[in-house]
Amino acid sequence: IVGSLTDGFHQDVQQGDTARRPNYGTANKQRQRYVTKDGKCRVNLGPIEDKTRYLSDIFTTLVDLKYRWFLCVFTLCYIVTWVAFAEIYFIDAWLRDDVAHVHDPKWRPCFENVDSFISALLLSVESQRTIGYGSRLVTANCMEGVVLLMAQSIIGSIIDALMVGCMFVKISRPQKRAQTLIFSKHCVISERDEKLCLLFRIGDLRASHMVDAKIRAKLIKSRQTKEGEFIPLEQSEINLGYDTGGDRLLLVEPQTITHVINETSPFWEIGAERLTRERFEIIIILEGIVEASGMTCQARTSYTEDEILWGHRFESCMSLEKGSYCVDHSAFDKTFPVQTSTLSAKEKSNQSEAG
Site positions for Role in the control of polyamine-mediated channel gating and in the blocking by intracellular magnesium, renumbered to this chain (predicted)? Predict the structure, then answer.
C-alpha cells in the first residue's frame, strides 16, 4: 500500500502535478488512503525477521491478538497444564504401584483413587481449579506428591493472573470508546472573521464525556526537494490552536475545529483551482481520557483533497429547548455554500497589501 502511494505521488511530482483530479466517486475507488475514515492505518509493516521481540512483551502480544486466537491461547494454557500434570500424576502413581492397589484398604497410596489416566486428569483439574470433590486427592504418604501439588497451584495462579488480566484489558480497551466519537464527512474552507479557514466538525455520542480532550492534525503529502530527493508521505503539522490552547476541547457538544490559513499553514498558497490538482491527505487525531475507566482513548480519521468543500459552511446543530441545549445529529454533516473568494490566502494577502 505504501509502495502504491509512493509510486502514485512520485508520478504526480514528475508530471508537474498538472493532471486534473478525477470526480468524487472515481477518486474514492482509486485512491489509496494512509488512514481510513474509521481510523485504521493502511500501512503494511511487512515480515519481521526477529520475532522474539514479540515474546519479550508477551502481555501486549496477547492483548493485541484477535479474539479467536486469544481464546485459543486462553484454552490451551489450561488444557496443556492439566494434561501435563495429569501425566506426571499418573506416571508417579504407576511407579509407586498405587494403580494396582487402588481397591486395597491396607495400601497407603500417594495418589488416592487414581487408577487410570482419566482419573489422574480429574485429579489435576480438581487440584488446579480448587474444586475438591473429595474422591481423589494427594495424601501425605509421599513428598513428591506434595511438591507436585504446590507446583501446580503456583503455575495455575500465574496462568489465572496472566489470562484473566489479558482478558480484562482486552475487553476494557478504549478503542471501542472511539466508535462513539464522530467526525464530519467533509472539511470545508470558508472565511471566518475575514480570514480564510479550514474547518471540520467532531462530536461525542455518549453522555459520559472525554476528559482532557486534545485535537491534532497532520498533513500527509509527497514532495521533491531542491536537490531532487523525493520524499513520500511527508508529515507536516497543521496548527489547530496549540499555541493559543484552542486544541484543548470541552467535548460536551459537537465542536467545529478551525485551522486559520496563514503564512505558516501548508495551505497558504492553495486556492480553489489549485485544490483540484493537489494530492494530499489530512489526518485528524482526537485523544482524551475515558471518564468511566481513566484510560487514554484515541480516535482518528482522514480527509483527502476531494473531501474538502471550498466555499461551504457547516449548518448549526445546536438549539435551545426547554431550558437546555439540544444537539441535532442529523445536521452534523450538513453544509451549505457561502460566497467565498477562490483566491488563495497568499493571493488575498498580496491584493490587500497592494490595495
Answer: 160
